[in-house]
């Protein structure tokens, strides 16, 4: 070291200032990182909630759009299906008085819908009420989907052009023996549809679907807080609103008591249960205009 030179270091004041600046920068970085993580978690939970609602509506859509297809309307529904509704499964079918039924305070949807079979009538038929008719179809009938047991929904089929369901009396290859529930003309090249009854509702954080007379209620989607359904007979429009949650439960309430779209049939807000408000929530709605 040359003579007269002095070693110069940081003073205590400079060190303190540097530490304060670094602590401020570190605090800002931590705050920013925490905000980012919280925002990401919230976005992820909301996305999951929306996805769950969409999954429910997607499951329902094809069935709803085929509700009542080729079946009788109004009071004729009960008359047409009296063998089924008064049979061994009558206790399970009390809420099926029409093709579209909403019960339990708008919380349960019960629909009778027609499932396309891919089989078409080869010839036309003049059908008389209560008189069996042998109908030849384009291919053999899948006997796992239709039987001659009128106590189950597999024992019934319908044709969109006919407007009534048929009771299945027998199946041999591509020929089905049917009992018409109306005197009418069944044209050629009309597709046969399998009759199915569906009951759907949310319970215990899951969305359930029951293929009535065929299978017990099964969970379809998890994370569903509630579901409401509205039916407008005048416009034949069915509306479904699904209240779904994310995965992360917070220790405090993070969702409001009411959410846009979570309303009753008159547009009044529905109260969200307190437990559900510990999650990020999403309301998904869809309307379907039904045929027939």
From TrEMBL:
<keyword id="KW-0998">Cell outer membrane</keyword>
<dbReference type="GO" id="GO:0009279">
    <property type="term" value="C:cell outer membrane"/>
</dbReference>
<dbReference type="InterPro" id="IPR012902">
    <property type="entry name" value="N_methyl_site"/>
</dbReference>
<protein>
    <recommendedName>
        <fullName>Prepilin-type N-terminal cleavage/methylation domain-containing protein</fullName>
    </recommendedName>
</protein>
<keyword id="KW-0812">Transmembrane</keyword>
<keyword id="KW-0472">Membrane</keyword>
<feature type="transmembrane region" description="Helical">
    <location>
        <begin position="12"/>
        <end position="38"/>
    </location>
</feature>
<dbReference type="Pfam" id="PF07963">
    <property type="entry name" value="N_methyl"/>
</dbReference>
<keyword id="KW-1133">Transmembrane helix</keyword>
């Amino acid at each position: 070291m040359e003579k007269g030179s002095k070693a110069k270091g940081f003073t205590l004041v400079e060190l303190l200032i540097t530490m304060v600046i670094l602590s401020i920068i570190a605090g800002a970085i931590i705050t920013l990182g925490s905000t980012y993580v919280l925002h990401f978690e919230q976005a992820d939970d909301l996305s999951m909630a929306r996805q769950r609602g969409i999954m429910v509506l997607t499951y329902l859509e094809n069935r709803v759009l085929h509700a009542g297809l080729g079946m009788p309307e109004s009071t004729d529904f009960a008359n047409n299906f009296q063998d089924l509704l008064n049979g061994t499964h009558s206790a399970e079918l009390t809420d099926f008085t029409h093709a579209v039924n909403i019960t339990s305070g708008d919380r349960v949807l019960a629909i009778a819908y027609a499932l396309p079979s891919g089989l078409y009538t080869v010839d036309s038929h003049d059908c008389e009420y209560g008189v069996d008719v042998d109908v030849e179809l384009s291919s053999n009938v899948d006997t796992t989907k239709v039987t001659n047991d009128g106590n189950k929904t597999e024992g019934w089929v319908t044709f969109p052009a006919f407007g009534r369901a048929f009771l299945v009396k027998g199946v041999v290859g591509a020929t089905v023996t049917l009992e018409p529930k109306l005197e009418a003309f069944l044209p050629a090249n009309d597709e046969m549809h399998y009759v199915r009854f569906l009951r759907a509702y949310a319970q215990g954080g899951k969305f359930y679907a029951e293929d009535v007379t065929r299978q017990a209620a099964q969970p379809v989607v998890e994370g569903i807080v509630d579901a409401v359904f509205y039916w407008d007979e005048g416009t034949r429009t069915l509306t479904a609103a699904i209240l779904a949650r994310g995965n992360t439960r917070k220790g405090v309430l993070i969702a409001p008591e009411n959410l846009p779209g979570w309303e009753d049939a008159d547009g009044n807000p529905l109260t969200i249960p307190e437990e559900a408000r510990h999650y990020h929530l999403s309301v998904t709605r869809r309307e379907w205009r039904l045929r027939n």
